[in-house]
Prior knowledge:
This protein is α/β, with parallel strands linked by helices. 16% of the residues lie in helices and 33% in strands.
Amino acid sequence: CGSDPNLLGINNPAELAASEELRRRAIVEERLAAGVAMHGPGMVRMGPYVTVEPGAELFGPCELYGHTHIASDVIIESHCVIRDSRVESGTVVHSFSHMDHAEVGPDCLVGPYARLRPGAVMERGAHMGTFVEMKKARLCEGAKANHLTYLGDAEVGARANIGAGTITCNYDGEGKFHTTIGDYAFIGCNTNLVAPVKVGNGAYTAAGSTITKDVPAQALGIARERQTNLEGWAEPKMEAYIAKKKKLEDEQSK
């Protein structure tokens, strides 16, 4: 039967792996011939229903599965896994990003280390950065969530900025609740948004706040204790540390 994958028998895991490799290679060669650029094509895995437009650029190793569609002028960097998702023209997906049933619009930036779960949508020019996770959430046009953030059951308005460490607290143990963030809103670092809650257009939240009530448009939401400094509180601890260190040094010098 030669090496025709349509005629090979599969009777054990080794033969299955060999047949999969033949099919993988054939799909990759077909996309290369059509004008898809690949760096390390031997490390690119692509399912039979994946569509990649000419002009896209893939860096192996990466994996594309299901009915994924990659538009022209998209860059997929190495170690990305994309399943049943759409990525539109001009978008860059940085390394170690994962997508599952997600939609990414044109001219977006994703990752590195971003995770788009089912229902995640990024509109034109949105940014989703390092260690950001989205689930059933939408980043509207030009919105940015660049660092260490979880957005679940949420809508983030156009040009809004999400500070590092922001969390939408969408689950109370029984049900899921929605967070709405308006256009041009600014969410300060380490903000907890306890859903259901709305932050209005152009509103701000102070860093470190736990927001449980709606913030009106162009208002500043502050929800944190005033700082209290207890003078001398650490002095006994420092004295104990110095005494312990000196004792250890004396024992070592003997």
